[in-house]
Amino acid sequence: MPKSTFFNLHDSKRAKLLQAAEKEFARVPLSQASIANIVKLACVPRGSFYQYFHDKEDVFYYLLKLHTDKRRVYFLNVLKESNGDLMDSMDQVFRTMLIELTEEEHLKFLKNAVLNVTHEIEDSFTELFLGKQHEVDAVNQVRDLVDFDKLNIDSKQEFFHVMQILTSVTFRNIVDKLSRNLSHEEAIENFRIEMDLLRKGLSKANSEG
Amino acid sequence: MPKSTFFNLHDSKRAKLLQAAEKEFARVPLSQASIANIVKLACVPRGSFYQYFHDKEDVFYYLLKLHTDKRRVYFLNVLKESNGDLMDSMDQVFRTMLIELTEEEHLKFLKNAVLNVTHEIEDSFTELFLGKQHEVDAVNQVRDLVDFDKLNIDSKQEFFHVMQILTSVTFRNIVDKLSRNLSHEEAIENFRIEMDLLRKGLSKANSEG
DNA sequence: TATGTTAAATGACACCGTGTCATAAGTCAA
DNA sequence: TTGACTTATGACACGGTGTCATTTAACATA
């Protein structure tokens, strides 16, 4: 998290800093991004950067969090409007993300973020759907919206694992779309196939028994 | 890939280099590893390193490939011995990996690799099961071993997606185990729950129809 | 053995980025 | 105005990277 000094800044300067950082992280992946470029873009002296942030990872994950928070709100709304249909909602969010990724700036930022996946980023993706891990309130927020009659699970404890599975597969599909430069149609078709497989199950036994 | 010079080296020197590199990558994640340390450990001058490799990523991914190749052979054997039961084989490989991860050196290397997940690493994990992407032979090698009567899929084209799903979820479980320091029992239990969910399907509709 | 040719080894060096720190400049209350 | 505290600033020390000119080794050929 940025230092308190950062949050004491005028709105305009704060925005300027974030904008500069996002631009740099859109240019190259995290490991190649340089603080030198960020301060040049934002027109602030190098020392100031360290007044606001601990290091470049600090800004980077803060930016990512801003993105994630926005999407999470959207996800919760979709879930409401679909009367708690979890699979359909994942589908909807996946499609919306693909559309968002046509906006040049955000695309490049997210592309660099996602392709250069660190464990923290996959976690932040999970948070999109489940909220901050181990924060029970956030998990409940989703769980209360989900229509369990549409899910094939015995215990509410299994719900957590359902979300883990859906998140892993969805994330994978986003990464694939970006790394292989798939068209929207291809990406959606791939995702549809995998969601269908998840719905009906991979093992034949159950459709016989 | 390392340069040809590297492969012309005496076996002992090549091994020494790789051992030094693995030790450094076991110490810290890729981004923090330094070539300076590797050459110090291997007792070779700095310039030599660049005679053998393009950069540190080059050694790193080569090491990772050596690990992956070894596991892939094992996976194919398990698949044979289980008469093509895909789900059971994934289970078996997952358990074996957990056991391998008790060996200190390899644990730390893989932990750093997996936690600091880059897109390339998840890809290399997929290759473990599917072989190099777009190399048709490698995919067929697995597909020919799989018993399709145990799988709930209509077309062989769906097989690829089944593997994608299984790989994503398995990979996620390995990452979780390492990042949250789960015990073997917990990790196996989590994995079992998710594999069961995948088997039976997430959606209720199919168990009714 | 002498000679030429190619491959490999070596470490000094220029370059770049990081994070720190001493100092200067504000802010605000008494 | 003074003092206490917060923020700004940029020079600097440190460490890592990749290159390159030079040396050394390997080996073929006459």
Largest interface: A-B, 40 and 40 residues
Average pLDDT confidence of chain A is 92
Helix content of chain A: over 70%
Oligomer: homodimer
How much of the polypeptide of chain A forms β-strand, as a percent range?
under 5%
SSE series of chain A: HHHHHHHHHHHH
Major sheet characteristics of chain A:
none
Tell me the radius of gyration of chain A.
Answer: 19 Å
What does it look like?
- The structure is a homodimer of 209-residue chains.
- Helices cover 74% and strands 0% of the residues of chain A.
- Chain A is mainly alpha-helical.
- Chain A has helices at residues 4-8, 11-27, 35-42, 46-52, 56-81, 86-100, 104-115, 119-130, 136-143, 157-179, 184-200, 205-208.
- The first copy, chain A, is globular and about 65 Å long.
- Chain A has two domains: 4-57, Orthogonal Bundle (Arc Repressor Mutant, subunit A); 60-201.
- Chains A and B meet through helix 10, helix 11 and helix 12 of A and helix 10, helix 11 and helix 12 of B.
- Chain A binds a DNA duplex (30 and 30 nucleotides) through residues 5, 8, 34-36, 44-48, 50-51, 55-56.
